[in-house]
User: What shape does this take?
Amino acid sequence: MSRPYRVLSIVGARPNFMKVAPIVAELGRHPDTFTSRIVHTGQHYDEKLSKVFFEDLGIPRPDVNLNVGSGSHAQQTAAVMAAFEPVLLEHAPDVVLVVGDVNSTIACALVATKLGVTVAHVEAGLRSRDRSMPEEVNRVLTDQISDLLFTTEESAADNLVREGIARESVHFVGNVMIDTLLQHRDKARALDTPRRNGLSAKAYGLLTLHRPSNVDDPAAFEQLLSALSEIARDVPIVFPVHPRTRPRVASSPLATAMVADGRLRLLEPLPYLEFVGLMESSAVVLTDSGGIQEETTILGVPCLTLRENTERPVTITHGTNHLVGTSPERILASWRGLDRTAAAPPPPPLWDGRAAVRIVEVLRQQSS
Ligand code: UD1
Assistant: This one.
């Protein structure tokens, strides 16, 4: 019998955990075919951004933690590369599996390809066409050096082929983040998070903001809040605050006023199950996240995306997402025009909870 195929999966930042969880679980169901190891780069290190997700999602403890922490893009990316290279040499995997578009994704993909190791990229081919977004640079470069490209939506294959990638390398498998959502939805409901926070179903908005373009510049942040403060007159807004956004909130006059009169409720970053529970019962989600556009699509909750572009167009054509930009007039007009009683559309193709099974089947074919 041939030896098991060695898969080394990389996680670094919060959105990576829910993507890797179902893949690692599926690999674990085939112990004769695969060995599975996890490397955590330590890009996110706060307990609330990292450890609680391993617990909520039942991810095995990482085999290696590189502990790189925060830094400039160059420092962080370089630190991951330097720390990952000896780990890769020691573990000698057959494939390095990277997910999403964070700095840890490109850093580990680059180390692996230079050492001649097969790179599999999960969530390949998404494009915002906005190179000022650090994630867009990470996506384009990771895809260029990946051997296996696993896509979540049909637009992604066209993006990749346009960039010179062979169509045979692209595998349309569906969305692993939705595998995780479908698997944990009942558990999230059972926690009754809205009621435990004194919130009535469909009577509050849920806000997340962490994109540099929205939260690094105080003026841009205040402009967004001016629209949100009007929406918050109709429904109070609950806001779990990302560490990157915390200083901006603390120094914002409008945020302070909204908190004082009860229109805005600030929370710490939430564990996965609690956040899903809050999302599902909300009247509207307001966000600049990528993954939340996908999750609201499946939960059937209206999502106003506070960005000028999205790399996930299927959430608009097949989902509940509305790209509303960052101008206060447009955000408010979109809120006022929203049909909150509209029936949720059917899910996008292959967002059926079986993406990880499809990925592992492609890996099995590689191993034989
Ligand atoms: C990163 C990803 C982004 C992803 C987001 C999800 C990149 C380029 N960006 O952005 O794509 O959507 O994660 O959260 O990879 N910090 C803490 N504790 C932590 C981690 C960070 O306090 O555990 C603070 C630090 O001040 C740090 C800042 O947050 O400097 C930003 O962290 P970083 O990992 O650089 O980027 P994110 O904004 O979290």
